[in-house]
Amino acid sequence: MDRDLRKTSSTEISNSSLGIFMKDIFTVTELTGAIKDFLESGFGVIWVTGEISNLRRPASGHLYFTLKDDGGQIRVVAFRSAAGRIGFDLEDGMKIVCRGKLNVYPARGEYQLIIDAAEPKGLGALQMAFEQLKERLEKEGLFDPSHKKNIPFLPGKIGIVTSPSGAAVRDILNITGRRFPSIDIIIAPATVQGTEAPMEICDAISDLNLIGADVIIVTRGGGSLEDLFCFNDERVARAIHSSKIPVISAVGHEIDFTIADFVADLRAPTPSAAAELVVPNRKDLIERIRRLKSRLINARGVSLRELENRLDFVVKGLRDPRGRISDLRIGLDDWYIRLSGGMRRTLEMRENGLLPAHRMLIRLTPGTRIRELRRRVENIKKEMDVRTRFYMNNLKGMFQKNMSMLDNLSPLSVLKRGFGIVRLSDGTIVRDVAMLAVGDSVDVKVSSGSFKAEVTRILKE
Q: Does pTM top 0.70 for this prediction?
């Protein structure tokens, strides 16, 4: 390991570099070069702590800032390659510990520290990177509940993104196999630790979206913050957010939280809990269906009995028109019999009244009697015609009146007058607006047919 400042005394540095100053007069360039050689060779790799100020990020990707404390300051440079290896964002006012080498910039005669590593002082770099990424993604809205997709109640195909040799996938397969054996499981293999893990996880999520799984579980077992850090990667977070398929995050133990947990549509505390959340128990479903079937049969029976009672009530309330017509026919026959009997009695009375005349006519000449009889017969005939028409007109009027009354009582006649019969979808006749609700679909029967309507407004009188 290179020497650091804490292990190198000033005496050793002076003795080892004394020869470079054995000259009477220096040019500026010579003096600057001597100092550069002295510092760069004498100190080697050192660790320095201080507070960041004047941080600059030019387009080149390098980082320039000043590291200071209460008694002094030093310029610091992190070239692009080194800046990319720092796992968190540097900020003004942040206290850090950084590693690097002293360097003298001859053009300005200034010395600076060129670093290749840094970490926050008092807070681990990984934790700092986690907090910074969490805050930035939350501001972008990736954690917003409005973006969360619903997890299907009974998925037909479950995709699992994890290591195929890990304990997490075995736990999920055991639980899903016990709870609902017929559900298809697709394992999209990915390493869940290390530098290659984030891209493999993203590719696995993309593949499952192409295959068409119903839900995706991104999972692995417990571990340290370093072990789980691939699930704190921004690329993984955006892949989960962009997924068209609902994603469940089940990373580590219940106390472990990752960025993937916040972005996912549902967080499960453990891989086993994820399996229980996504797959219902088949036995419980069968029992629930059995109970619902029993309730449906009972409810249907009650509904049928209510309909039968209503039908009986309607049948009793509506008299058959044919019965009324039969009654009228019988009444007409009765009137006819009574009319015929009356006419016979009248004729008999007339005949009895004609007997004296008949006797008188016997005494008359045959020609006179014949004329008298013809005259009387004509009178009787006319009287019979008048009476017959009178009785028949009376009977006809009564018949028409009864038929009109019967027609008025007929439901069809009511419909012809513009009324309608309104029924609910189950056939119940609507007798009160209290039986209706806005949005109900009803069947309306009119004289020429029927049509369906939807209740948009209810007015009570």
A: no
